Amino acid sequence: MRAARVTVLEGPAAVTVEEVEEPTLEPGHVLVDVHEAGVSFPDVLQSKGLYQMKPDLPFIPGAECAGVVRRAGADSTFQPGDRVAAFPVLGAFAETVAVPEAMVFPLPDGVSFTAGAALLMNYLTVHFALARRGHLERGETVLVHGAAGGIGTATIQLAKAMGARVIAVVSSDEKRSTAEKAGAHHAIAADGFLARAKELTGGRGVDIVVDPVGGDRFTDSLRSLAPEGRVLVIGFTAGSIPEVKVNRLLLNNISVVGVAWGAMWMSEPGYLRTQWHALTPLLESGAIDPPIGSTHPLEDVAAALTEIDERRALGKVTLRVR
């Protein structure tokens, strides 16, 4: 089968597509013929050896995909031909992947393979962030950085579906358009976002900041919070990890909350299915529908990864495998 492989840790340009052996069906797993795979920032980091999970070389990257079940065990709840979304953690950038059954989810008939491949990393991360770590309540205001990217657009849609008012922070007019199409109530420029956020909230501030960016904006994110507000730390696409002067947390009883979705599902794999059940009605109603920024053929995997690495992605980036 065809698969993308990381053979050297030299970044996206070094990822190649080669012929490799197909995986075999192991107990407790499902074989999925991949139609579409989602591309995310951790894939970029893995290509450079900078992610916390460091598989032995060579490896097939890709954490999320959608496709059709080829084979499943006799006691499986899945049957050959079932449409599914899957979270193999590694191996999705291939024509076929073996996935633990706990990480395979039925894909509603009205949801495309492209949308299915765009769901898992971003929407399950954001669901964990908003519902479990941020305790988002209906009527609260959420500010999201990096609002035109995969995490950002997922936050816009899910926060809005949960009854929040959403302020999207963007760095260009093109990204503003993406955030608005995703459903943001307001889209504001990254430069001067603090003053604008205060203005939009009548000086009170926002209840939650979702921050997958980090870097120099972090202090102003803290300043943008309303009393008892919380910053949800998801990642550091800006490249630098900010430091917190904890005396700031005392001023308005604010919180900085870590969002380690991976640590959650690794210790409690059944939580993934709980999340999927929570999201399925929103998928079926159209309340969440992943905005797709670009779709690349598998052979152009390096270009797909580079698009994310250079922060040019507008919505989710996917790979068309079949």
Please describe what this structure looks like.
With 322 residues, the chain is α/β, with parallel strands linked by helices. It has 2 domains: 2-119 and 290-320, Medium-chain alcohol dehydrogenases, catalytic domain (Quinone Oxidoreductase, Chain A, domain 1); 122-262, Rossmann fold (3-Layer(aba) Sandwich), CATH 3.40.50. The chain is built from 11 helices and 15 strands. The chain has helices at residues 41-48, 113-117, 120-133, 150-161, 173-182, 193-200, 218-223, 247-251, 261-267, 270-285, 301-309; strands at residues 2-5, 16-19, 29-39, 64-72, 83-86, 96-100, 104-106, 141-144, 165-170, 186-189, 206-211, 225-233, 255-258, 292-297, 316-320. Helix 3 (120-133) crosses helix 4 and helix 3 (120-133) packs across helix 10. The N and C termini lie close together (12 Å). The relative contact order is 0.16.
Count of helical stretches? 11
Instruction: Kindly provide the name of the CATH class of the largest domain.
Output: Alpha Beta
- What would the average pLDDT be, to the nearest integer? 94
Radius of gyration: 19 Å
CATH 4th-level superfamily of the largest domain: Medium-chain alcohol dehydrogenases, catalytic domain
Number of domains: 2
How many strands in all? 15
- Please estimate the helix content: 25-40%
Low-confidence stretches: none
Kindly estimate the percentage of residues that lie in beta strands according to DSSP: 25-35%
Structural class of the secondary elements? alpha/beta
**Gross morphology:** globular
**Distance between the first and last residues' Cα:** 12 Å
Question: Strand count, sense and closure of the main sheet?
Answer: 7 strands, mixed
Helix/strand order, N-terminal first: EEEHEEEEHHEHEHEHEHEHEHHEHE
Supply the CATH architecture of the largest domain. Answer: Alpha-Beta Complex
Write the CATH fold name of the largest domain. Quinone Oxidoreductase, Chain A, domain 1
